[in-house]
Specification:
The chain has 293 residues and is an alpha/beta fold. Helices cover 35% and strands 17% of the residues. Helix 4 crosses helix 10.
Length: 293
């Protein structure tokens, strides 16, 4: 189906199937739904978008790894194309979190990405402005002096071989930028919170990803495996924090050699003393930039 044929009318049977017969809703249907969502801000009604994400939540599509993986692929098929210079020389990684945990800590994953790059990793991170916190990774990067320039439509962005690169999500996944207000307006975490962090246009080989719910850990780890990620570590602080907790134990799910192993880590494993989450609460992009420095 061509982009011009993705319409509110052709979306109705997909939405009806999800609402009325969710047991027959397939990953192919989910991917087709994302093709519709990418068709533009004036294609679907706002009520259809809200109904879709609400039905996906109530039928817990976010608990099905094959759905998460299909949604990610549906997004990436519409992403701006990138060419990674000398990609064969590196194991490219991304460090990111789903958000939505309500703790509003400073931008831990972005800071960790820069630290990892300084330690020798090649990090290509994507991120956006705040969806569930006061400051998203893009807000932090902008406060640190970065300026975002949207790539020219139809072009391919060449990513140089440098330790750390940041891709502004709404520039590289611009087909879905119109969904942000709808996603932010929903009073519950939805499947887009899980899919968007996984949809890195650079398609890294490795990923460290924080989730806000223990149940999501093995699901996301399995989704990463289905996506072809070679190595990953999914983490969740036992306070339902989408980071490795500084206050106590964290659950981990390691994807390695096609196998997923669950374990726990504590601050002591990293040689630091436990301290309350309140001590790492963030603020605006400018506030978090000071913490970063």
């Amino acid at each position: 189906m061509s982009p011009q044929k993705y319409t509110a009318a052709s979306f109705k049977p997909i939405l009806k199937k999800l609402v009325q017969t969710p047991e027959s809703f397939t990953p192919g249907d989910f991917k087709e739904a994302f093709h519709h969502l990418a068709a533009g801000p004036d294609v679907l009604y706002g009520s259809q978008i809200g109904a879709f994400f609400t039905a996906a939540y109530f039928h817990r599509l976010d608990w099905r790894p094959e759905m998460v993986a299909a949604g990610v692929e549906g997004i990436l098929e519409h992403a701006h194309k990138v060419h990674i210079q000398e990609a064969e020389k590196d194991f490219i990684v991304n460090i990111i979190g789903t958000g939505g945990d309500g703790y509003n800590v400073f931008n831990v994953s972005t800071t960790a990405g820069v630290v990892a790059a300084g330690a020798g990793a090649r990090v290509i991170k994507h991120g956006s402005r705040a969806l569930t916190s006061l400051a998203g990774s893009a807000d932090l990067m902008e406060a640190l002096g970065c300026r975002f320039q949207a790539p020219r439509p139809g072009s391919t962005t060449s990513i140089p071989r440098i330790p750390f690169v940041f891709l502004h999500y709404t520039d590289f996944i611009s087909s879905f930028a119109h969904l942000v207000p709808a996603v932010k307006s929903l009073p519950f975490p939805n499947i887009f919170h899980y899919i968007a962090p996984l949809a890195d246009p650079a398609r890294p080989q490795g990923m460290l990803l924080g989730v806000m719910d223990y149940k999501a850990g093995p699901i996301i780890a399995n989704a990463l495996h289905k996506m072809g990620i070679q190595r990953a570590l999914v983490v969740c602080g036992q306070e339902n924090l989408d980071e490795i907790s500084c206050a106590g134990p964290s659950w981990t799910w390691e994807l390695r050699d096609g196998k997923i192993t669950e374990s726990t880590v504590t601050p002591d494993d990293f040689g630091v003393e436990a301290h309350p989450i309140a001590s790492v609460v963030g603020g605006s992009g400018k506030d978090n930039a000071e913490t970063f420095k």
